[in-house]
Every structure is written in structure tokens, then in C-alpha cells.
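Why do we bother with holo predictions? Because pocket geometry can differ from the apo form. Keep that in mind while you read this record for adenosine monophosphate.
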Amino acid sequence: VAALLSVSEARQQLISAFHPGEPVTVTLDAAFGRVLSKDIHSAVDWPPFASSSMDGFAVRWADVEQATPDTPVRLPVVADIPAGALSTIPLAQGTAVRIMTGAPIPAGADLVIPIEDTNHDRPHPGESIPSDVIIFHSSPNGVNVRPVGQDLHIGQSILPAGHRLRPQDVGMLATLGLHQVPVYPCPRVAILSTGDELVPPDQPLQPGQIHDSNSYVIAALVRQAGGEPVVLGSARDRFDVIQAKLDQAVAAKVDLILTSAGVSVGTYDFVREVVETHGKIGFWRVNMRPGKPVAFGEYRGVRLVGLPGNPASAFVGFEVFVRPAIQRLAGNTEYNRTQVTVKLGEPVDSDGRESYMRGIVSYQSDPPTARLTGHQGSGNLFSLVQANALLIIPSGVKSLPAGSEVEAWLLEV
Ligand code: AMP
Ligand code: MG
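The structure, written out:
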């Protein structure tokens, strides 16, 4: 009998078997969700030129310093600078230029007086510039001018290798003019459901049948973790059918195969036999709940993780073991779910194994409060639909009173 591993031992063993592939380059439009393979530094100062942060009039501080509603200052308007224009003429003493947000500040100008503090209204498109402007309020020197390098300096560290690109990161790369992005390859992950009872969701159920939900949950989890799912559908509980599907995964040159169900000791559980025929499969007895043992092996040289068939068990097995493995494969240095301490809003019973319970964390209190969702039976997906977290009841604990503090993994992306 295999040794009983703790969740953290099993996790560590599995995760350490996964490493990112050789870096590649993708264009910026394909970079969202990919993981950087190099540190990114800024090659520029940003903003690249001093620009206005308001629509108004660029002036010299000395000319407007004294302006008040009772003693307004009148200045001739000598030019108009829309965004995208180049202001080559320095601002002469005693003059103003009309300027738009994002337009370059002319040499000599110190600040921008917003339109609201002048006698003018917001200009209509195409309206010619006024001959002069009356300024009723001064503003502090330098105000409404975004100086060069306010956000970034040349050489500044922007993002580290191993970081998964978010929308704002992609925007940052665009700002820097980086359109070829160094990233790790996206792991390709084959997904196979097994079971004679399974039919695709677009087909009516005959007595005894259920719709295959694991394929959909696992494909979405793979995507969320930064992988590309290669969905193989569901296989009947037959040696040759499962073998043909796994061969399809090998031919598709995937980095990892995920199966669900069919690895227990039932009469029709063939996944184990097929994998052992052309590779090897090891079972771990992990001290956790929900969870049959997790199967980890290799089929014709391709790594394979066998998840349980029950939807909630498959989900938890994925979160505990497969998500970190895929994120490592994807090059992501951060592969843990966000973990927070929560206070139980109700008593919770466990059986002494490390338990991952479906819960809803509410942030109205500090620390946040957590309750269990729905019926915690491992076949019940609705309890996960209602959940926004997995509550971790440590091993060795059989019951916890309301008010106890436990750790929770937040399931929000
Ligand atoms: P097994 O591991 O084959 O004994 O399956 C355990 C339980 O999970 C059974 O109730 C199956 O019907 C269910 N199950 C297996 N695969 C799926 C699937 N792809 N979608 C939904 N339920 C499944
Ligand atoms: Mg089965």
C-alpha cells in the first residue's frame, strides 16, 4: 500500500515535475494571458513629452499669478495646439495658446488654465481660436502639465519574467511600443471524460444517462490556468475506445493529458489498464477530501493526471494538483490561489482528512465570514456554482465551531 501523503507533499511532488518550455515570441494582440519569459524594462520615459492634462490655455505663471475674479488677466491667444500636434514656437511673454488634453506643452509655458476658469466655453469642433482669453483664477505653478517621465523612466523595471499578462499589462507593452512579446509556450492539455453513462449536453438523455459536465468544467479550468484545452469528448468504458482517444492526444502533441473517472476499482474502470499497457500510472493516497487517490502517470511518454469522476471531486483535484502544474508549465512563477483567512459563519464537521469544502465568502465583516454552500456531496455541482471559495479544514480536525478561523482559496479569477 502506498504511503499516505499529505496534500502539500503530494502537491510538491507533482508540481516539481512540471517546467516551462523554450520561450517563443508572440505579437501583442495574442499576448493576453501569456506568461512573460523575460523581464521587461522601459526603454523610454513616459510621458515622452510634457503634455496638458486639461482642455484650456497654456500660459506663463508670471502672467497669471495675480488673476482673481475681481482682477482678471486678459491675454491674446496666439495659437491652437490640438492633441497630436507639434508646438515648435515657444510661448512669448504675455500670450496664451489654446491647448487640448494630451497636446504637447509649448516651450515657455508653465501651466494650463482650465477652460472653466476663463471667459470661454468648451469649443465646438472646428471652431476657430478666440482672439483673447480672460483668466479669472490662477492655478498653482505647473498645474495641469504632465511632465516627461511622470509615470516611467528609462530603464525602470516594468514586469518580471514569469508574470501572466493581464489587460493592463498588455496596454503597458503597447505604450512602450513592444509588439513582439517574449513568452513561454502555452501548454496544450488534452481532456478526456470516460463513462458509459455520459452523453454530450446537446443530446437527450436515455434512462440511466447523464450529461458530461466534467469536459466543460475542466476545459474552462485549463483555459483559466493559462493552457489551451484539446477536448477529446467522452469515451465509453472500453479498453480500445479509451486507447484510441489517448492515442489521439499523443498525436496532437499535448503537454499533459487529463482524464476524469474510470480510475477507481470498478469493473468498468479501464483508464488505469490502458495507461499501464503503454506507460505507467501511480496512485497516490492523499490525505484529503473530497478525493479518491489522484492518479499521476505517463501514457506513451506524455504526462497524465487521472481526476476523479464526481464533478466536485474533479474540480477540487484540479485546483489542488493540476492548476499549479499547468501554471508551472506555462511559466507562471505564481501558481497559488489567493488565500485569505475567514471566520466560519456556522459550525463545520469534517472527518479528519484535509478537506476542501465549497463555501461562500462574504466581505461584510473583518475577517470575512464563510458559510458552506448547498449539499457537499461530491457529485453535486450546484454547491460549486454557489461557491466563491474553497474552505480548507486542516487534517486532524473533525469539527469546528462557528467563529473558528480557517484558510480559504478564492475561486474568482
Ligand atoms: P467513476 O469515477 O467512473 O466511478 O465516476 C464517479 C461518478 O462521477 C459517477 O457518478 C459518474 O457518473 C460521475 N461522472 C463521471 N464522469 C463524469 C462527467 N464527465 N460528467 C459528469 N459526471 C461524471
Ligand atoms: Mg465510471
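The helical segments are 7-15, 61-64, 167-175, 214-224, 239-251, 271-278, 311-329, 382-385.
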